[in-house]
Design goal:
The chain contains 23 helices and 4 strands. With 526 residues, the protein is mainly alpha-helical. It has 2 domains: 215 residues, no CATH class; 183 residues, no CATH class. The protein has a two-stranded parallel ribbon. α3 runs parallel beside α12 and α18 packs parallel to α21. The radius of gyration is 23 Å and the shape is globular. The two termini are 29 Å apart. About 16% of the residues have low confidence. Keywords: Nucleus. InterPro entries: Fun_TF (IPR021858), Zn2-C6_fun-type_DNA-bd_sf (IPR036864), Zn2Cys6_DnaBD (IPR001138). One of its GO terms (molecular function) is transcription cis-regulatory region binding. This is Zn(2)-C6 fungal-type domain-containing protein.
């Protein structure tokens, strides 16, 4: 049976789970659309059409691209009278404790939203509104989607990504609805229930409100910024960047190619901060830069068209600078980098980032049909640098897990990079002992983690972080045992809701059958 699909090839989530064959809309065909505006409530959400969500994703992506291209000046920034959703409807003040002044003293907005108090924010005070649907998808975001985006953390009390998104969602409605949309989309990927998809479409429609702020911020000059209310503008830039990166995560994990437009949008905002220096380099924006860098690395290593940073000065300025002690110290304060320099966002040692950037950059310059061309100096320098990272030991890092995932993710990235150098640059045959050993090393550490976690749902979160190393191992697998393990792991990920996992399975099988694995689908292993 064929059904019309709204996602990228090779198969959408709906068809993969139901074992149906996908057909795709051709030029000139139309999805049935809802004429009236979608509002984020149950009655109107249930009226959303099947294709509405995909159309909204594409519409938002296209409008972000259009906003980037704007060059005309704008009127001075004027804060919206509705810039802050009603805090009273989202906060149970009776539950608030210090440092906000006690249970009967309402906190100021600045106190509630201060990034310096991020870890002491009492999240039990968030009602997630009295709206049952909002609460449902807030809970999915809180307990599941946030874990997918940032599966590794110093402790359960140090979850900066989740905590900062929730706090900043009180500043702008579009971040709040982006948060709910990510929960609804993840729920839909599990259940395939139309209610979940329709709710996501309704929430996504509300995120379109970010475009007004985005266009204003993007076209502000440094001189204009100095003449305006800096506090309001900086908060807007922070909230915008968080929202667009959250939408990038949502799209990248949903088998949609619209992640690229969102990542470009985040790049332009970060450019205003770290290249144009129109806005201050706040702690939140330093975190956003780190989050963006994680995307760029995965896109550069796994997406057919690479990432969104092309020029060398962009790569230098917009990637996390692991040699800048001030920047690293901020990430340590936010508990995103350990004292051993393990980066919880990346999943590896901070100093492994520069070699991966070099590898990513060199791969982009090569001929993808025959493998990147490299001189011997580059190859042997890379091997020397990467081998040095095999000596790092992160087993002492405290993680809320039965298994040392920090050590595992770090070593799988090191081994995957070595595999890439050997097979893509030196063209070492896959059945040689060096390649087989590296593939087995990746698989042994990951399967040991699966066994240690007893195959519970919690295993899925760290597995999400090692999809590129697993894909690199898949391209280099030569034995039936290796292929069976890889196929099983990616099916586990696909069944849990990873959009790119199904794509990875298709690419690996093509490679195993000596077919060019490139499917020309602009997805990253995320």
């Amino acid at each position: 049976m064929k059904v019309k699909c709204d996602e990228a090839k090779p198969k959408c989530i709906r068809c993969s789970k139901r074992d149906k064959e996908c057909t795709y809309a051709t030029n000139g065909s139309k999805f049935r659309m809802v004429e009236t505006a979608l509002e984020a409530n149950r009655e109107q959400a249930n009226n959303a059409s099947f294709g509405a969500l995909d159309l909204i994703d594409k519409d938002l992506s296209a409008k972000i691209d259009q906003a980037i291209a704007l060059d005309e000046s704008i009127s001075p920034f004027i804060a919206s009278p509705h810039e802050l959703p009603d805090l009273a409807s989202r906060i149970d003040y009776a539950l608030l404790k210090q440092p906000y002044g006690g249970p009967r003293v309402e906190p100021t907005r600045d106190a509630v939203l201060d990034s310096d108090t991020i870890f002491s924010f009492p999240f039990e005070s968030i009602l997630s509104l009295s709206d049952e649907m909002h609460r449902k998808y807030f809970d999915v975001f809180f307990s599941e989607f946030a874990e997918i985006v940032a599966p590794l953390k110093a402790s359960s009390d140090a979850f900066f990504f989740r905590d900062v998104v929730i706090q900043y969602s009180m500043k702008k409605d579009y971040l709040y609805f982006a948060m709910l949309a990510s929960g609804a989309r993840l729920s839909y990927r599990r259940t395939l229930e139309d209610d979940d998809q329709n709710a996501c479409a309704a929430f996504m429609k509300k995120t379109l409100e970010l475009l007004n702020d985005y266009t204003m911020v993007l076209t502000l000059s440094k001189d204009q910024v100095e003449s305006l209310n800096l506090s309001i503008i900086v908060q807007t830039v922070e909230t915008l960047t968080l929202t667009i990166l959250l939408l990038t995560s949502d799209n990248a994990s949903s088998m949609k190619d619209s992640w690229r437009s969102h990542l470009k949008g985040a790049k332009e905002l970060l450019r205003k901060v770290f290249i144009d220096e129109a806005f201050p380099k706040t702690k939140v924006l330093t975190f956003c830069k780190c989050w963006f860098t994680g995307f760029e690395i995965l896109a550069g290593l796994t997406a057919p068209f690479g990432g969104v940073l092309v020029q060398s000065h962009e790569i230098e300025k917009l990637s996390t600078n692991v040699n800048d002690e001030n920047e690293v110290q901020i990430l340590r304060e936010l508990q995103l980098v350990s004292k051993e320099d393990f980066n919880y966002i990346f999943g590896f040692h901070n100093k492994l980032l520069p070699p991966l950037i070099k590898l990513m950059t060199r791969m982009r310059k090569g001929n993808t049909n025959i493998g990147p061309k490299a001189d011997s100096d580059f190859v042997f320098d890379m091997i020397s640098e990467l081998r040095a990272f095999k000596d790092y030991d992160f087993t002492a890092i405290e993680l809320d897990s039965k298994y040392p995932w920090a050590q595992t993710t770090h070593m799988t990235y090191v081994n995957a990079a070595l595999l890439t150098v050997l097979t893509k640059f030196l063209h070492v045959p896959l059945d040689t002992s060096a390649v087989i050993e590296l593939v087995n090393s990746i698989l042994d550490s990951v399967t040991a983690g699966i066994k240690a976690e007893n195959a519970t749902d919690s295993i899925i979160f760290p597995l999400m972080m090692v999809q590129w190393p697993l894909l690199a191992a898949g391209f280099s697998a030569s034995t039936d045992e290796q292929k069976f393990k890889l196929d099983s792991i990616f099916h586990l990920l696909a069944g849990w809701g990873s959009g790119s996992a199904q794509y990875s399975i298709e690419m690996m099988k093509r490679a195993w059958n000596n077919i060019n694995p490139n499917l020309n689908v602009d997805l990253m292993a995320y």
